[in-house]
Amino acid sequence: MSQTRSIKYNFILNWMNTLLGIIFPIITFPYIARIIGPVGLGIISFDTSILNYITILSSLGIGLYAVREISRLRDNIDLQNHRTVEILLLHILLTLLGYIAVFALYLFIPEINVHGAIFLILSISIFFKAIGVMWYFQAREDFLFITVRSLFVKMLSAIALFMFVRTSDDLIIYAIILAMADVANNMLNFIRLNRYITYRKIRWRDLHIFSHLRPAAVIFAMGLIINMYIDLPTIFLGFECSEENVGFYTTSTRLVTVIMSFVTALGTSMLPRMSYYTSTGDTDKFKELENKGMTFTIGVTLPISIALIIISPELVLSFSGKQFVESISVLRIIAPTILFTGIASIAGLQTLYPQGHEHVIIRSALVGLLVSIVINLSLVGHMAQQGAAISFLCTELSVTVSMIIFGHRHLSYRYINPSTIRFALASAIMALILIAIHNIPELNKFVRLGIEIISGITAYATILYLTREIMFRSLLDSLKATCNRIISRPTK
Fold this sequence. Notes:
Structural class: mainly alpha
Largest sheet: none
Number of strands: 0
């Protein structure tokens, strides 16, 4: 398989996996939101945010570091396997130390101890994420396995949710199902790892487990800072306000996260290949992929950000119910972060990081962390979830702008170009159409939402087609070619 075909193949699989990640929350989240309610969702989100920090501490940046390093060794399988075992053992050791923090928080923090059983249940996933070696399959670009495994686990989890979570008193059961989904995903990964690694061929005496500490620590610092400013609004809300306020905020951020997963699917496909191009010195292919990735990202995230601001009422009420009406304003505030995060992802993790310029990402993240702390301290206490949303928006904007400024010497993409102008024009026309539909009186919210989505996509795609946008026409040609191959394929 050629590398070009491989990238398309990986991208399609990642999109399929992303689509699964969107379909299942669409099916399950409205049910869970109505059954568990804002308070229950707030408890789960608060505990998950705390545990995310422990996961970051115990992983020490190993995930991103391993993807880059294992990708670079794809032409030397023996050395690749050797490095894999070293990194896996290091991750397990650090994870065991991480459980000291888990039990300390459980014993000494009242806000956690009050629903400690849920906290401990959710903490199970920390260990299994360590042995799940997701980074290995991403580095090898084994996205078919990732997609099939994800489908299998999501189906079982959805069935379990509908069967066993029936009232607000089933919060612990909900936590168990969430934890077991993580366990299943990562156990299947670990079992499959044995197909690639022949442990008897590993030179155990030559393993240098702790040689990866220093380079991984740099990635750890980067990941820690990024996750700190992402989770800070939730944690501030948890301590200064109520679980209900956390639930309102989390509902909106979940919707944004689900939508952003479409963009991260591209990044997951790019990172291993970008790392490989860096190791081989193929700068032309590196820059070509960078520019394609950024153009695609802006072309997708700009219209989505604008559309979300307009259709937030229908979206929140359709998927969460009237009890989450306070989440509408939150979603409108944080909608532009989809664009900012998409740009930062391609510029930072998919372009600067494979080149070894982590320091640029760290400096940008520090700017974002400072902005997050200042705004959360200033606004969350008296503006609750709206203050947290403003903090999130300003933080993502500051990180993106800082990354472009600090890393401009290493980034080849030019943001003002014919494609971005077409995207802006198409988005503006789409917005006018959505506003007109939004103001139609006496229209059922589900019907209105469906009309808005179809009309928005149609209007945006039509403008790009009429203006002869290269990215859109390339995607259209690829779709036609794929359909033709499927239709013309001879039956056996």
